[in-house]
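Repro:
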Amino acid sequence: MLKLNIGCANWVEEGWIGIDRNAPTNPNILKLDVRDRLPYKENSVDLIFCEDFIEHLTRTEGLAFLKECFRVLKPTSTLRVSTPDLKLQATRYLRGTDFLTPSLLDFNQQQTDYDWATAVPGTYQITFPCEQMNILFSWWGHCWVYDEEYLTQGLLHTGFVSIHRCVVSKSNIPELCGMDRRIQEDQLIIEGTKP
């Protein structure tokens, strides 16, 4: 069974092939920029998992990436995409409450000597909803952030069917259960199947 973990950083589960253009040397990870073409034949891949990756591509690159996943997946195979949820973050911003998720609270606890006026990415505490929204859009190389409607439309346009939102670490596909490393409640996780 050929299973790809795209945008895996330095983490790859046993039995999976990791792909990341910035991965440190690791014999289980292909150092590859998937904005080019995936090095697999049409209809040759059983599963694709990508977590916190698609938001690092521009809108055009993201849609091309979905098409490339569709090309290499075998019929009846599944793509699982996990990415920050724009709608959830925007709702939190507009409410002005609960924007500090458990992961951001942990991030804040790691920071010391905080001065919001002089802080740079990765060195300060997140205090205001405005900071959280700007971080979502501009830090860590984020280029395009999705909500469920837009990502679903991209998958439909590409040809995927049976598109549905998933709960963290849960899937109807046993090999995808427990794959999520980011277990925050602010993730948008969607699976689609190639017919």
